[in-house]
TrEMBL record, chain A:
Keywords: ATP-binding, Cytoplasm, DNA damage, DNA repair, DNA replication, DNA-binding, Nucleotide-binding, SOS response. Belongs to the RecF family. Residues 26-378 form the AAA+ ATPase domain. The keyword Manganese does not apply. Coiled coil: none annotated. Its main location: cytoplasm. This is DNA replication and repair protein RecF. PANTHER family: DNA REPLICATION AND REPAIR PROTEIN RECF (PTHR32182:SF0).
TrEMBL record, chain B:
May play a role in DNA repair. It seems to be involved in an RecBC-independent recombinational process of DNA repair. It may act with RecF and RecO. Keywords: DNA damage, DNA recombination, DNA repair, Metal-binding, Zinc, Zinc-finger. Residues 83-178 form the Toprim domain. InterPro entries: DNA_Rcmb_RecR, Rcmb_RecR, Rcmb_RecR_Znf, TOPRIM_dom, TOPRIM_RecR. Pfam families: RecR_C, RecR_HhH, RecR_ZnF, Toprim_4. PANTHER family: RECOMBINATION PROTEIN RECR. CDD domains: TOPRIM_recR (cd01025). This is Recombination protein RecR.
């Protein structure tokens, strides 16, 4: 089994409440505990920026700068990745960004060399996270579930990001043409063909990822029928996704392009495009009870979500011959009874993942004593605890 | 720039230079200093060249290229095959194709692409003149050499539809594996396009 992805050293500079902090860690799990507002989640957020994307809070980069700091913020790490050991760093400086064109992203460096963008980080760091903000995943808007799924799709299909960008740009162009009252068939058709092409490819990529995830969930059920985390039934709901189940992609593409052409007046009235992969949903059900996840109790939803996130981590690990991704588990022990808490810890240890967990109470993690690094977070710094 | 570091003439020069693509304020200052240092052999010839350009450079009435004459020297070149018109978005694309000596036809520069999000429609581009040229009887083939972006591709579709009533053959350049490129390093979209546009050998 390949060693799991781990951070050996993490440093934060002028990031959120930290002026400068350095953490040296082993490959095992890490527990960050401390009072509310001490900055535990900020550490997880910093780690999440070592992967492509906007981080786990999706906060604007200027907001991450420590209040009172002058330059910019930076997060650097020495990682043990499947591509070998690497020094990676990322940061953002509001003053430097102001000198450039608007909308510039963060700076990324790999082994001291500037990288084109955060996408380059995908070769080194893969992260799966679970935060209290995701507690409403099953009851909240479909867009949250799509984002949850699409993050996983990206791990398997790096081209997915540009595909999604292409679809979005073509859709915005079509919406604008409709809003401007353009009725020129050739102009609308030009963007609709691109939407159909990219949209069908998006749906196909999601289907293949969901299929992989279903396989992992089935294997987990067999391995551990009494798991404290009930298995999820998952399926995709969307017109292109269901069309692809019974027709070849070229036909789905053609018929979507034709439907877009026939829906112009309706979409013009609505002010947006009413059909496409941007409207799809991930439907999750409580497997053993055979009921929609959104109707389950709060505690059951959390257990389902943990099971789903662990299946996701396992899927990524399987793809890299057992090398597990980083896990960021924020306030993870809240709402979990003892059985589930211990079940989660043994899953993490079995997967061999470097899990970064936060909590207010160290005693909740006593089952991990001797196997995890315990760090107390206080006064904008970290303090080791020898438990 | 927060504070002026030289007289207004030099400041103005730096300011204008910094508006060129690829030049920030820092490199504009460098360029200005270099010009000032080499007054005889660089600054004066450049000033002359620029003022000649202002006086004489114009857009070709045929194809939209920039040149000192209209029709441009490419359109006047008798050795070119005038039955083949290569359509490009910008003059830079024309120069790239000429550098590669890829084809011995004539060109048509659109001056951009259709972009609803930037408010650019067919009326803002050199499309009516293209339709005129295509229906003149002299043109047999129109090759659409546009960018593989959302805007480039939707512009291509639009022009293809507009050219349909004329009897010219319309073709597009291929998308796929770059010469010297390795498949392993290509993105999925390019690979899929390369497979889609395969041809029998």
């Amino acid at each position: 089994m390949a060693p799991s992805l781990s951070l050996e050293r993490l440093s934060l500079t002028d990031f959120r409440n930290y002026a400068h902090v350095v953490i040296e860690t082993g490959p095992g799990p890490i527990v960050l505990f401390g009072l509310n507002g001490s900055g535990k989640t900020n550490i997880l957020e910093a780690i999440s920026l070592l992967a492509p994307g906007q981080g786990l809070r999706r906060a604007p980069y200027p907001d991450l700068l420590r209040a009172g700091a002058n330059g910019g913020w930076a997060v650097a790490a020495r990682v043990n990745s499947r591509s070998g050991r690497a020094e990676i760093g990322t940061g953002f400086s509001p003053s430097a960004a102001a000198g450039q064109r608007a909308g510039t992203g963060r700076v990324v460096r790999i082994d001291g060399e500037p990288a084109g963008g955060s996408g380059a980080l995908a070769d080194f760091v893969e992260i799966v996270w679970l935060t209290p903000a995701m507690d409403g995943l099953f009851t909240g808007p479909a867009s949250e579930r799509r984002r949850f799924l699409d993050r996983l799709v990206l791990c398997f299909d790096p081209g997915f990001r540009s595909l999604a960008g292409r679809f979005e740009r073509a859709t915005q162009s079509r919406n604008r043409l409709l809003a401007d009252g353009v009725r020129d068939n050739a102009r609308l058709e030009g963007v609709e063909i691109i939407m159909a092409e990219a949209g069908t490819a998006i749906a196909a990529a999601r289907i293949s990822t969901v299929r992989r995830l279903c396989d992992v969930i089935a294997a987990r059920r067999l391995r551990d029928p009494d798991s404290p985390f009930p298995w999820s039934g998952i399926e995709l709901e969307g017109s292109l996704e269901s069309a692809l189940a019974s027709a070849p992609a070229v036909d789905v593409e053609d018929s979507y392009a034709r439907r877009l052409a026939s829906m112009r007046e309706r979409d013009r009235a609505a002010g947006r495009t009413l059909e496409g992969p941007h409207r799809s949903d991930l439907i999750v059900s409580h497997g053993p009870k055979n009921m929609p996840a959104r109707l389950s109790s709060t505690g059951e939803q959390k257990a389902l979500l943990i099971g789903l996130v662990m299946a996701e981590a396992e899927l990524i690990a399987m793809r890299h011959s057992g090398s597990a991704p980083l896990l960021l588990l924020d306030e993870i022990t809240a709402h979990l009874d003892d059985r589930r808490r211990d079940g989660l810890f043994s899953e993490i240890l079995r997967l061999g993942a470097q899990a970064w967990m936060t909590g207010t109470d160290l005693s909740a993690f006593s089952a991990l004593s001797g196997q995890a690094t315990m760090l107390r977070v206080a006064d904008a710094g970290l303090h080791s605890v020898h438990a | 720039m927060s504070k002026a570091i030289a007289g207004p003439e030099i400041e103005r020069m730096i300011q204008l230079l910094s508006r060129l693509p690829g030049l920030g304020p820092r490199s504009a200052r460098k360029a200005a200093l270099s010009l000032l240092k080499r007054r005889e052999d660089l600054l004066m010839p450049l000033a002359d060249a620029l003022s000649a350009a202002v006086d004489r450079i114009t857009h070709c009435s045929e194809c939209g290229n920039v040149d000192t004459v209209s029709p441009c020297s490419l359109c006047r070149d008798g050795r070119r095959d005038r039955s083949v018109v290569v359509v490009v978005e910008e003059v830079g694309d024309l120069w790239a194709l000429e550098r590669a000596a890829a084809i011995n036809g004539v060109y048509h520069v659109l001056g951009g692409h259709l972009s609803p999000l930037d408010g650019v429609g067919p009326d803002n581009l050199n499309i009516p003149r293209l339709l005129e040229r295509a229906s003149s009887g002299e043109v047999k083939e129109v090759i659409l050499a546009l960018n593989a972006t959302v805007e480039g591709q939707s512009t291509m579709h639009y022009i293809k539809e507009r050219l349909a009533p004329t009897n010219v053959a319309v073709s597009e350049i291929q998308k796929g594996v770059p010469i010297g490129g390795e498949l392993d390093y290509l993105d999925d979209g390019t690979l899929a396009a390369a497979i889609k546009s395969r041809r029998r050998i």
